[in-house]
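Exercise 3.2. Students should predict the tertiary structure of the chain below and write it as structure tokens, then compare their answer with the key that follows.

Predict this chain's 3D structure.
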Amino acid sequence: MIPRRRRSSSIGLNLTSMIDVVFLLLIYFMVATEFRRAEASFPMDLPAEGRNQESMLDSEPLVVLVESSGKFSSDLRVQLEGPWESVHTLAALKKFLRANRADGFGSGGLFTPDHPILIRPKSETRWEHAVAAYNTAVQSRYTNITLGKP
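Answer key:
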């Protein structure tokens, strides 16, 4: 009798069961994960409706009308276009702009420092009066100020 040699068998892993386990883990993590939008992952405490609601205005410019009322540098009238309180002098304009500037979180202002402000002189307004209104807005720490055409 001639002894037959057995074929040498190769040692290997059964990958079928390993692939099954990997897919089961993948399905488990997909089902167990909560997909949230980025805004929902940062909760914010918002104030209740009707209590101290302070709203920021859109980017429509605040229009300041400037008119010369005499020959001297102090003879000018200032008026705000829109539903704002009555402002007639540069001191009143400065007070209005500072009172309504929103400097940060929780401030009571209506306008951010980069809110557009348009200084519009009337046709007979002297240049120094228009510049004085411009300087008043700069002193009130606004940065987006434009001189308009009369």
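Discussion points: The mean pLDDT is 81. The two ends are 121 Å apart (CA to CA).
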